Amino acid sequence: MALTASSVNPATHGNAAAGDLSGRRAAALAGVTSAVLLFLGVFILNPPLNASDAELVDWWSNESNQAAATVSMYLFTAAALSFLGFLTHLCARISADERGRQPAQLVLGCGIVFSTMLAVAAAARGVVGKAVAFNDQPLPGADTLRYLMQTASAALGVVAMLAAAVAIVAVTYAVLRTGVFGRWLAWLGVIAAVVLLAVQATFVGELAIPAILIWTVAASAAIWRSPSTIDLAVR
Q1: What is the DSSP letter of 193?
Q2: How many Å separate Cα 106 from the centre of its chain?
Q3: Confidence class of residue 150 from pLDDT cuts 50, 70 and 90?
């Protein structure tokens, strides 16, 4: 039975709308939080790329660098968890329209891969700092230090970025089909996906991180400003 304005109890509608509003705002804040945390996590840790073995070991021997690596690990992890909160609501809004249900499943799957790879990158970036600074473990050799950061780079710059690109394409497709959030988000998604895929040709996928951050903040703004699903159902 279709809902009409006259068939909905005003008190029930008001409570449901309030709950939907709080959910939308929580999801939007989770998205912005994820973007900020990921930016900070990347920004605070920058090991030398072309250093000699002695220079690399010396850099990791510095206590402030070890602390930065540990903090970066926690920031990445928190970003991954916040992104999942944002993602859950995003997928729910897309799948509310029958035409968006299949794209929403793809978005959810790719979003989980993205968050998982953030967690993998977090561990690879922070394990040395945490082990040496807080657990009194010896500093590993230069080769181990190099390959841990390469593991983080592969997880973040390759797997996570490609998963994000597919998720953004799926969101863009769903927005164009259903009209949810407005077409401006779809066109921004096209630009972001092109950037993400193009940067893969440089083999330094981390360069595309700004595109992910901008898109996540924009999608969060779209969620914040979108009409209530309760109101849409009543109409």
Answers
A1: H
A2: 15
A3: very high
